Amino acid sequence: MQPPRKAVAFLRWFCREDCLEEIEGDLMEVFKKEYENSPLKAKWKYTTSVMKYFRPEFMKSFKHHQPRTLGMYQSYFKIGWRNLLRNKSYSIINILGLAIGIACCLLSSLYIFHELSYDRFHKNANRIVRATTEFSYGGKVTKVAVTGTKVLPEFKRVFPEVESGVRLFPAGAVVAHDDKLFREQGFVYTDSSFFNVFSFHLLEGNPRTALNRPDQVVLTVSMAKKYFGDKTPLGKTLQVNNSQEFVITGIVEDCPPNSQIKFDMLASWSSLTDPVYTTEGWFDASHYTYLLLHKPGMHEALSSKIPAYFKAQDAKNDLSGENYLTIRLQPLTDVHLRALVEGGLEPGSDYRYVYIFSIIALFILIIAAANYINLTTARASDRAKEVGLRKTVGALPRQLIGQFISESLVVVTAALIIGLLLVAALMPAFSTITGRQLTGNFLMKPESLFAIVAILLVIGLLGGFYPSLVLSRFAPANVLKGNFNTRASGITLRKSLIVIQFVISMTLITSTLVIHSQMEFIQNKKLGYQKDHIVVLRGDRSITEKMPTLKSVLLDNTEIQNITTCNQTPVFIPGKYNLAFNDQEMLITGIRADKDFVKTMGLTIIGGTDFTEAEEASAFARTDTLYRPVMLNETAARSFEWTPEEAVGKVLTFQGRRSMVTAVVDDFHFSSLHESISPFIIFMGSTTNWILVRTSGNHVPETLHYMATKWNELAPHLPFEYEFLDDQFNKLYSAESKTGKLFYAFAILGIGLACLGLFGLVTFMAQQRTKEIGIRKILGSSLYGLIMLLSKDFLKLVVLATLIAFPLGWWAMDRWLQGFAYRVSIHGMEFTLTFVITFTIASLTMSAQVIKAALANPAKSLRTE
Questions:
Q1: Which residue segment(s) compose the domain that 47 sits in?
Q2: 820 and 764 housed in the same domain
Q3: Are residues 756 and 654 both part of a single domain?
Q4: CA 703 from centroid of its chain's CA atoms
Q5: Could you please report the per-residue DSSP string of 807-864?
Q6: Residue range 476-498, pLDDT digits in tens
Q7: How do strand 690-695 and strand 128-137 relate by DSSP bridges?
Q8: H or E element in which residue 629 lies
Q9: How many angstroms separate the most distant Cα atoms in the chain?
Q10: Are 440 and 110 in contact (CB under 8 A)?
Q11: Are residues 454 and 579 in the same domain?
Q12: Does the pTM exceed 0.85?
């Protein structure tokens, strides 16, 4: 039963908007009555009635009319400002909550885009790949970032896709200048093609010749200023490792913070004289290799050729079946977030964390926006009479919607300004937590400005459109009489938003508790060695002859218990060595150390005996007539299918030299707990790269002072620099530690924002039900009954949020824990604690307003009735 469409269209075309609703309603009412008797007559009469209204007094003006929009919007802003001042508590909750949410979102965005920008500043970034080594023995696959020395020259010879390449060997060095000594960890050996492959800007010097001869070095701007001040350093020399004189041939800009390749000094590769680095080989991987391809996207074609090539190489090296060695390629721009291998140039991040923080940033913003929308819609009924009056004097629905949206945009803009100020204030602390040098430059990029404006518009439109749409539909007469009810129309939305807020907050709290449990597990897990109270000193070959004297002098101090020397610290050992027994061959992780290593580290021998002085002498002799004494861990012994007792006395070929197993030690962790324990070898040899000093843990400052004094007496050419072994261990989990701190901060903010919104909503609901509470008190309702009346609906929503959040939190944390070979189990304790925390905070948030409403004098609340 519809009136003629053309007649309706014609009426709407010519009729004035202020008359259209009334005329159309009257015509429809008559049409329905006539339609029951004669449909044809009803349609005819409707059409003729429309034509009768086609008179000047009902026709709208078709001339262009420029409304006084400026005055209208001035009125909107004036009334909006008065509303903000009249309801200060709600205004503060709205603006402050939104500002915090926007600030958290922007800070997270700064971190996310900083992580995504790693290594993309290179001109050839889309053509550079990193070569990594993958090897397997007995089905155990190991992937490391370092490669053998043969990879770069061989790939350039064999594969036409490779245009150039670079090797990097971060050796570190002791640099002497003007009678001062400095330990430079950023001393890196590299090929002369370095500046051709990478886009590090050379400020002084020739990029083609700066590194093409032995004993040449390029300094960063910071290093040049450190050693020479404002003087030009080109052509001057620096003494390195108390032996080589390096000529400075260039000055390069400092490495950007978003580069995983970092250095302070670049030395020419030809300066290396040790055969380990000058002899081409696939094994004994110790440096990093980057390849420059001719065209972007060629790494997939090159990767497809590598397996066939290395299958032939494996045959030459007597590797087959589950035992193999190959090279994998990884785009440069994926290295930071998708390391996938052990031992990169610097600790990488994980793309999963980028996703996690993107989701968290969005969730925090959703919580803040939900607060704003919730309170705005809830308080819309207070504006009902204003809307009714505006409609009475001729305001159109679109004008009312425009008014509410304008006011909403004002609030959101104020929150955005405060949020940006919070970002500026919190950025230094946030940079410290994340370990990244974050700046606000990203926020000034066009895409960032677009995102900020989009956030402002979306929240502003949502906060203004819904309440204005609801109120604009009410009949003015009913509104002005007080005959309206907005509670039913918005209750579902408000409940849904509250549930969403607490689901997000409880998921964050659960995740924080699980991460904390895992980090405690890592700290307390038995590693197979004792990491506490060990001081790590950095030495070099120059103190080899003085090492017995230094040991003797240091051990005279009763606070010092044991001392050992080794080529690497045992916390994280990425290097691999070739080990063979008869026809079985494998790559194995290992450490070169003296006879006191096992005792100093507190390792447990489960077969054989500790190294002796006689065995140490034979190891240092470097002769094929004597066996080199070695120890295996239990996993290595099992790889050869030996028991610890059977392994003792076995003769192996290790690094091309006959070696005898003198003992088997219990498994210990020499890498992070992300990886399971793999085969390991301890071999004796002359090395003073690292000196490990076990102390009692008492009188630490005095002990360190004693060590420094004796060090300066016996090794004045080396700076005394120390670090504690447990600090090195903690650095392995810096990413997880930062994640835990950020989750903790976001969890606090999430539950804080949720409760802030809950506080505002409970306060409003208590005010709305003031008369109801007064009547209930007069009729004898108890304080407990009134508190439950006002609280139970909200607490039910918290319980519902709990039922949704717990499975979500369990799923997310189980996925995260899968990245650890050794992990905690997720128990009910984390969920119970999350519920207790959330329920308690929510109850305390509501209690003040609920009790205040319940204790109010009913005479005051009912005096207007």
A1: 5-58
A2: yes
A3: no
A4: 39
A5: HHHHHHHHHHHTT-SS-PPP-HHHHHHHHHHHHHHHHHHHHHHHHHHHHS-HHHHHTT
A6: 666 566 655 554 445 676 778 78
A7: unpaired
A8: strand 628-633
A9: 123
A10: yes
A11: no
A12: no
